[in-house]
Amino acid sequence: MYIRDMSISDQVEGFFLLQDAYAKTTLAGKPFLSMVLSDCTGTMDAQIWDYTGPVTPKDIGAVVKIRGTVSEFKGTLQITVDRLRLADAGDQYSVSDLVPTAPIDVEATWKELQDIIDSIEDQDYRSICQKMMNRYGEKVKSLPAAKGIHHSFLNGLLMHTAYMLQTADFLAGMYGSVIDRSLLIAGTLLHDFAKCEEFTTSSLGLVTDYSMKGQLLGHLVMGAHEVADIAAELRIPEEKSVLLQHLILSHHGEPDFGAAVRPMCAEGELLSYIDMIDSRMEIYRETLEEVPAGEFSKRIFALERRIYHHN
Amino acid sequence: MYIRDMSISDQVEGFFLLQDAYAKTTLAGKPFLSMVLSDCTGTMDAQIWDYTGPVTPKDIGAVVKIRGTVSEFKGTLQITVDRLRLADAGDQYSVSDLVPTAPIDVEATWKELQDIIDSIEDQDYRSICQKMMNRYGEKVKSLPAAKGIHHSFLNGLLMHTAYMLQTADFLAGMYGSVIDRSLLIAGTLLHDFAKCEEFTTSSLGLVTDYSMKGQLLGHLVMGAHEVADIAAELRIPEEKSVLLQHLILSHHGEPDFGAAVRPMCAEGELLSYIDMIDSRMEIYRETLEEVPAGEFSKRIFALERRIYHHN
Amino acid sequence: MYIRDMSISDQVEGFFLLQDAYAKTTLAGKPFLSMVLSDCTGTMDAQIWDYTGPVTPKDIGAVVKIRGTVSEFKGTLQITVDRLRLADAGDQYSVSDLVPTAPIDVEATWKELQDIIDSIEDQDYRSICQKMMNRYGEKVKSLPAAKGIHHSFLNGLLMHTAYMLQTADFLAGMYGSVIDRSLLIAGTLLHDFAKCEEFTTSSLGLVTDYSMKGQLLGHLVMGAHEVADIAAELRIPEEKSVLLQHLILSHHGEPDFGAAVRPMCAEGELLSYIDMIDSRMEIYRETLEEVPAGEFSKRIFALERRIYHHN
Amino acid sequence: MYIRDMSISDQVEGFFLLQDAYAKTTLAGKPFLSMVLSDCTGTMDAQIWDYTGPVTPKDIGAVVKIRGTVSEFKGTLQITVDRLRLADAGDQYSVSDLVPTAPIDVEATWKELQDIIDSIEDQDYRSICQKMMNRYGEKVKSLPAAKGIHHSFLNGLLMHTAYMLQTADFLAGMYGSVIDRSLLIAGTLLHDFAKCEEFTTSSLGLVTDYSMKGQLLGHLVMGAHEVADIAAELRIPEEKSVLLQHLILSHHGEPDFGAAVRPMCAEGELLSYIDMIDSRMEIYRETLEEVPAGEFSKRIFALERRIYHHN
Amino acid sequence: MYIRDMSISDQVEGFFLLQDAYAKTTLAGKPFLSMVLSDCTGTMDAQIWDYTGPVTPKDIGAVVKIRGTVSEFKGTLQITVDRLRLADAGDQYSVSDLVPTAPIDVEATWKELQDIIDSIEDQDYRSICQKMMNRYGEKVKSLPAAKGIHHSFLNGLLMHTAYMLQTADFLAGMYGSVIDRSLLIAGTLLHDFAKCEEFTTSSLGLVTDYSMKGQLLGHLVMGAHEVADIAAELRIPEEKSVLLQHLILSHHGEPDFGAAVRPMCAEGELLSYIDMIDSRMEIYRETLEEVPAGEFSKRIFALERRIYHHN
Amino acid sequence: MYIRDMSISDQVEGFFLLQDAYAKTTLAGKPFLSMVLSDCTGTMDAQIWDYTGPVTPKDIGAVVKIRGTVSEFKGTLQITVDRLRLADAGDQYSVSDLVPTAPIDVEATWKELQDIIDSIEDQDYRSICQKMMNRYGEKVKSLPAAKGIHHSFLNGLLMHTAYMLQTADFLAGMYGSVIDRSLLIAGTLLHDFAKCEEFTTSSLGLVTDYSMKGQLLGHLVMGAHEVADIAAELRIPEEKSVLLQHLILSHHGEPDFGAAVRPMCAEGELLSYIDMIDSRMEIYRETLEEVPAGEFSKRIFALERRIYHHN
């Protein structure tokens, strides 16, 4: 039974992710474990009374099997757990039931990415893309695109990159007089690759925090550096290397939004809008799913306003 | 001979737009007329000595025929004029030689606009678009999109609108889960229609200033009002009318950029980026035409930075 | 007994507004209803134990009759309710005991408004005002001026408008060389009229939220549109209509404060300050009532600072 | 003949203020004096040829008598001077013909100021005002209120203060529940008194620059200090002294507009708006005088926008 | 036993500061006192059951003696108190055990301050410093430098001032061509002196709030005023007095950070950076003490970011 | 004769830098060359009549020898040139007479830099510094630190770096509990090294513009990249490499001032203030040299205010 479907008095038995856990003591002095469980549909509080282990807070991030009953406390559902153990090698469960994943066909999207790389006319930009794919492709394929806000599910970075590439391809055609398609496609593909090193992830692949390197350097500078090194290895002409680095460094558009430099070529300008569009449309998608038609959402932190789900 | 092609000692004879004119007196007390002439390729200073009329500053904006010689003064070319008269009904000259026009096939683009209106699935939005086209279409077809900065040539508003519609059509497909294509297409078509009443124009059709109404109300509020009235006449359901007004009122994105309200639906959010993209790409196009490859432009006022024309 | 006057152990019997309600269950599994009650002096938590209806959360916004006892929980007073029922047609209670109302003589203030409209010298502006009063006057008379922050009580919009008109009348005299009194008075009267359609209200008349139209268009644009339509019906000269619309569109002064355009005539500039003064003085009045002389308030959200109640 | 009324070929003889002067040499090696002359209606360039003195640039700010002829150079009027000398003790001319003065009856306005001081109910605030008037009154009476922007004419500070006092008196009545009239009137009277020490002035009384003290401390801090010292001398209770200082320190409203602290009492809040209103209305008055009805002004630096002179 | 060292089941007996206290009633109707106790190592919640006095919330800020047992509630430690009384004259405890104090040798630092004053070459600035020290020195010696954020412990202002003086002395040498060492040292010494009157303090010397005068005038204006008065008494030349006032008024650098004026001399510019450096380094010191090496802190409010404790 | 010392009628003969040049024609049709000449004391306009070459605008940036006479035109001095030729290999002139140089002993300062590198305790940071010095030292020694604003003279980057190192060394001692001296010294030394590649320079070594790479990447990102590569070559532990990159990337403090990331360790925070202090003190030094004591400067663009030269 998925968390989203539970209601009072339901008997629950199954696998969940142990999102959080605290060892506590009742006023009467009895030990218990207070937990937050999650699956791909949501999260729920749970308690197991008179419990001292073996599951403890050190197991946060692991998969557990529980048996219990759904009750209510202060208007919120929770599970009173009877049995609790860590999942082991012999258990049968699906990761995609436990953590959210992108609503896309992963393999087909992956194929799209490779096709568009093959379509890059400029051989220098294409070879940089291929080498980056060889080095980081597998991680890019599975990683979320963020810790929260939008695309914070498995394969989120793949989905974000693939959508942006479609738009980049279209706009390169629209504005052919100022846009070098090869540069724009390469920059779009690679703009977030360094998120592979910017995040720390849980054993199931979700983003848990930013890495030391990720915070002190940022994925823009790390990505540009990666590209510069590969371009040097491949003996790409300097201007091309610099332009591609520039696209990565400037793709947040404004210093206040995290850009290391502001875009100074048409491809950089365009990339920053393509990134903004895909991020914003995904925020709308994720938000409007939760809001009935004809109503407004709560204030959305990233947009600093409420949005409307029209009929 | 076009102004762009003139050099010292050239004999010039032909039609030009009288952009500006001052009646002056030399130190020696002789009257002369100091002029700025223009054609579709640029502007140039000119003087006619010992001259008191009949052409005077009241003729600014008219077409004149001149004969004269190109010379240089303080490093800048100018024309010393021998003969000067107003163009009259019998003269043979082309308006498109005198003022800049959009680099598009006007009739084909106009047809595109009509086709995309016909493709709007929602009958309510489609009928609003048709009525607006009947009322303002001819003016939209010929008007520049701005006084300066970008698209400030004849048919500029048509070019800007048509380019944006192509992008809107594409993105409506990309983000079909949150975008109502009919609403987005209608909003994109109509977003700048009220520029017809926001500008004052010269006899040749270029924007000379903002109208009283244009400055005190702005084209966003005027356009929304226009749409509201037509929607009421057509008895369109209120939500649709309000959404379409909202797209027009919010298409500048942020209050600091002139939006009367911030976008609160996905179509409004997207429209503001589509508008930004087309404006920016046109600024790049117009700027890079003047900058040799491998060099940076001067600081561009609207972007607050220099841009690079890469190889 | 008013909520403001209750203390521990008081026996309470009377009518209250059911502000909020949650159906809950105790740890022991017993159902109860947790409520927030209010009258014109404040709000208080209340519980009725072992209760499943007939009053339920669907009755939020209704008037209820209760009997109970005041107790304390974690330092806060609350009412333990014994009896609970909805008020019915036969009950005797006064709305003004249940919801806060403006500290003014409503009818006298209403008369003032009508007198000042009669005093408008310019017949065009006067007739627009009269027609707007016919159409919206009754709603303006009773509506609060806001959901919170200031004037959020019944007749609040009337009080706000009437105070501003007095100031406008005075300043029109002070600055007669640049101020057209008729325009300023008309703009001041009408600047917030569209709040009638911007808010949703409870059955007792308080503002509960913003309407769909109110959020997507805003009361500035809605008000200007209303005026434009009436001016067109009355065949008022266009400049007057545009100026009056401009005052309404610009009365928040700056885009960051919600103005659709910035004031560009002296009357618009002045109106924005008159609005600011009355709003701010009312915030001070409402705040200082709660702060003892010689002390500072808590930080006030709308002012972003604390204020001092001097001796 | 006033400068505003001069036209080409006029013979001019009279007294003018020597605003600026440069000793120069023609290309042919002849010395001449290039001058800017002014009277209460405007400024004009002037030259006297073959001239080495006795009038030289060291006489800037003095009154001169000239005789000459009006001519035109590059579209601008100028005076070719035949005779030039400094005005001396025996000359008959009026200062008010040479420099602009406030459009008020100075003595009547001065009387108003004194009457309103007499009307201050609180004896402590009244005595501070009286002592400040004794010390600085005469300078306040004649000083301009600014170097430029608004009220930059003789008696400008008196006009500005008197207008604000009328508004303060009115609003103290309107908002009697939160406003202490005595404090507001005293703060309004004294808010700009320290401009006496903030400016340096020419011999005819116009502001030429800011003093060292004026720039390093500002008139807000200087004025508050002055009041604190006088309050201490008069043994006024500390709270009153602090409140009056606070009004002076905060009368620019926001730190970005020069306030040393933000207003934290109702009188300070109100004073900042009264000051803003009078400054802005005077900017409108001075600007609209130069703009024909039905037209927009140029962009006004202090407002960051154009304004409209309606019919 | 210090609060930092307590763990579940510890028996506690000793003196603590009564930081906060609420008289409450259990659901069962029994009175108890809920307290927050503190010592120099931290704070802890505590309860004494069935208790109505004599210690009550009016004793907040006093020292109490307690006996009790450490327990846990919802994951947080607290003390269940058996005995509770106010400390009296005969009790033996050390203030420095109860409140945090600066990690410096107070007397040695105090001596440093006096030595550097003696080293001021300019006799005028030196004599102002000496007179200020005579008047306020003892309070400066013991006061915290802030209510929170940094240096909010006893002798914090002394520590902050002494550190800044060392840096000022060094930089006066580095930039001798533009820095007048006497002015910089005097300004650094005196820049925060008026905090003596800006704060209200508890009986043990910690800052509890801002005074009325402190909020309405601020320590910059109060400090400048103090210096101006002393300079006048000592008949110091006006420029020196104005410069020293200017340093105090501008030491926050920008109006948005609280500066009454922006620095306009090299010493003021430098002082604002010296103040910023010492404040920031102390924030880092206090924060990094709590963060293990190799980890990031939580978001720090004053810096608007997280900081890293490197290895 | 230095430009600063020239006056009307002086006969001039010597070497100057050809800063700018235009080939023009007089009204009478005669060719002449209009030039801007400069030496280490300033710039001056110059003309040579009836001249068609061999010196032409293509020689801008070269050294020329001239002979001529100083005259005045519109109040400004200029040189009428009789003889003009390019300097050649046999000419005797000193570069330091032609372009401004830092007011320091270059070799002694260079030695200081090397000594402080030798004093770095951490071997990893020291070896990075040494390798960077081997690679870029010679260019750093001679380069200006900027195109304008401050330190825009030869050896300016050396002077700026050396001053900052002295301050860094001192503050590392002051704040030893949070500052790793080795990291701070290394970061200070290297923070601007990439200016070697950010600028383009004239043949005499002054900065003429920014390079393509310099504009598209910026010296922060380029410098960090350089350090990362060298750290990798030297197999330095990753944290040290990341920290040193972080100092370089964050040394402008805020994104609005050009920082790629904001400082997140104490050394980065401190470095940004040390850089600010040295830049600002140099602006004061260069400005106050031109302003008499007791007067204010003109508004300084980089500071957005005027500054005072006190007595």
TrEMBL record, chains A, B, C, D, E, F:
Domain called HD: residue spans: 160-278
Superkingdom per UniProt: Bacteria
Keywords: Hydrolase
Record has Cell inner membrane as a keyword: no
Keyword Hydrolase: yes
A GO biological process held by the record: rRNA 3'-end processing
Stored CDD domains: YhaM_OBF_like
GO molecular function: hydrolase activity
Name of the molecule in the record: 3'-5' exoribonuclease
